Amino acid sequence: MSGIYIHIPFCKQACTYCDFHFSTSLKNKDELVKSIIKEIEIRSNYLSDKNLNTIYFGGGTPSILSDRDTFLILEKIFKTYNVSNNAEITLECNPDDLTNEKLKELKRAEINRLSIGLQSFDDAELKWMNRAHTAQESEASVKRAQDRGFENITIDLIYGSKFSNISNWKKTLDKAISLEVQHISSYNLTIEDKTKLGHDLKNKKEQAIDDEKSAELFLEMVERLERNNFIQYEISNFGKEGFFSEHNSNYWKGAQYIGVGPSAHSFDGKSRQWNIKNNNLYIKHINENNNHYFEREELTETERFNEYILTTLRTIWGVDLNYLKQHFNSDFVKTFLNQIEVYLKNGTVVLNNNCYVLTNSGKLLADRIASELFV
I want to staple 189 with a disulfide (CB 3.0 to 4.6 A). Which of 160, 162, 200, 374 is the partner? Predict the structure, then answer.
């Protein structure tokens, strides 16, 4: 089955580390919502499989939407696709948006999975990140959501900043575990060029990320979360049994998906497509019924092979040798088998049921190993 991603490009304020596409001005929000609904309609035949099992509102900050906005988008999706009865419907949100009234609205819209961007339980670090909430609001928002009957909640955490050390990271993890959520996504801070942090690093107002410290924090996280019944099914994602993100899992497994809204990406199995990162131009081109709102790239067999290695190697399922043999030419498979031997020998990769899976030490080198397995 397929999935749909809806990019909502609005935020109250800009986080210092974020390089996703968004605007802090809401003046054209209504026009953009109408354009998203129109894009869903005009691209109704993009997916060969019109059966959806996941709907994902990302951003930006989708919790900025009114209940009417969310309803109208969902209404168009349900009219356009065959949405399974137990579809996973996720909405990313900030703690400060999750009032009791907002949670009621999300329940009425049949949102059944919340992704809450806590990021930290340290007020000084939250201020440094330019987040709009406090640590106290983080905890309170999760409890309010639980009280309102949300039983599938994931929280986001960031580690590796100048505020991080092993002592406070343990406390952060213990606090996250105590909230009794079903899923935790935790990302090592990266400093991107076109962000405030990137600018400050360039001007020597900030320091580079300490890779050795990040590795220590990562291994502590893996051990601590797994000890508390979280399964690391992807390098940055931990879910309790039955609560892996279906939407992201499908992406990592190479399933088709469609992305609508400015900057959203799509994949139909043979090509990639990505929308422009400009709200006004996106609205203009959608309304003019032209194709200038996106770019498209047909993937070669080499690109499809490399993408499969890159995404699957990050997961608990690993690189499936049978899949390689069925979908790619034998020369690619031979090259892969030759190159993987060094990682089997040094213990960064293991072979389980004909699938190649990273060990904990291998996860620290995931991107490097994947790139060296490319053809």
Answer: 160
Judged on CB neighbours under 10 Å (0-12, 13-18, 19+), 165 is exposed
Q: What is the Cα–Cα distance from 96 to 178, expressed in whole angstroms?
A: 20
Q: Residue 268 contacts by C-beta under 8 Å, 6 or more apart in sequence?
A: 46, 47, 48, 256
pLDDT tens digits, one per residue of 148-197: 999 999 999 999 999 999 999 999 999 999 999 999 999 999 999 989 99
- Residue 350's SS3 state is strand
State pTM to two decimals: 0.96
Q: What is the mean pLDDT of residues 26-37?
A: 96
- Reduced to 3 DSSP states, what percent helix, strand and coil does the chain have, rounded to the nearest 5? 45, 25, 35
Instruction: Say if residues 191 and 201 touch (Cβ distance below 8 Å).
Output: yes
In angstroms and rounded to an integer, the radius of gyration of the C-alpha atoms of the chain is: 21
Spatial contact of 112 and 103, defined as CB atoms under 8 Å apart: no
Q: Taking the domains of the chain in order of start, what are their residue ranges?
A: 2-252, 315-372
Buried b (16+ CB within 10 A) or exposed e, 224-240: bbeeeebbbbbbbbbbb
Max intra-chain CA distance, the chain: 58
CA gap 375, 367 in Å, rounded: 15
